[in-house]
Amino acid sequence: MRKKRKRRKQGSEDSAISSVNGKKVNEMGSVWSRLGAEVNVIEFLDHITPGMDREISEEFMKILKKQNIKFHLNRKVTSIKKTNNGVQISTSDKNGDSKEFNCDVALISIGRKPFTSNLNLSSAGVKSDEKGRIKIDKKFQTSAKNIYAIGDVIDGPMLAHKAEEEGIAVATIILSAIGSNNSPSLDSSPRTLANIPSKKSVNDAIINNIKAVKSP
User: Fold this and answer.
1) Measured by CB atoms within 10 angstroms of the end CB, which terminus of the chain is less buried, N or C?
2) Cα–Cα distance between 4 and 35 in angstroms, integer?
């Protein structure tokens, strides 16, 4: 762990800047903040954790602010340059007003994609979609007989616990004719943010028929 340095002049803080918001930005930024670094989160949207419940997202940001994490919403990153002291991040808002951040570290979280381009899927008769995800049926079988796919290379959240359950399901399917009954639904896979406190959610398709009740 790096020993915290003496604060420099304004605009050159001992800081970890998240240039694009995302799950890992919130998780790692929260860790660095508790270790003593000044953390700024730059987000293109008007809220954090897109794809999750908006109300929970707003309350979650309040908790992170209490951990001294600063948020800069509705800002677009226009460039990131290395400097003698770290990096300089240039941003602009929807009105074109620019702002620069000088920091030690820039953490970029822009999402993930399946790494299937070098698997030579076509030679095996395995089809993929326009995003490189392997196409499967409800039993995780691909377009090629006896070839199954799970985890980050198929549609759905790229989460370890999801892939683990899919692996168990596929093993059951292969070994048993009734294995399809144990196939997990992609819609029901929970999502989580490993912050303190942690934040969890499920796909909206699961909660459409659930009545929300609030207590004072």
Assistant:
1) C
2) 9
Please classify residue 141 by burial: count the beta carbons closer than 10 Å to its beta carbon, then call 0-12 exposed, 13-18 middle and 19+ buried. middle
Q: By C-alpha distance, which of 4, 3, 82, 74 is closest to 41?
A: 74
3-state secondary structure of 128: strand
Question: What tens digit of pLDDT does each residue of 160-209 get?
Answer: 888 999 999 999 888 875 544 555 555 556 666 666 666 666 655 445 55
- Helix crossing, 54-66 with 23-34: angle to 10°? 20
Task: Supply 91's token pair.
Answer: 């941003």
CA dist 186 and 151 (Å) reads: 11
Domains of the chain: 15-108 (3.50.50.60), 121-187 (no CATH)
Cα 161 vs. chain centroid, distance in angstroms?
15
List, for residues 89-101, the tens digit of each pLDDT value: 999 999 999 999 9
15-20/38-42 β-pairing: parallel
**Peptide bond between residue 157 and the one before it cis (omega within 30 degrees of 0):** no
Residue pair 203/185 in contact by the 8 Å Cβ criterion: no
- In 3D space, the residue among 102, 108, 103, 155 whose CA is nearest the CA of residue 127 turns out to be 155
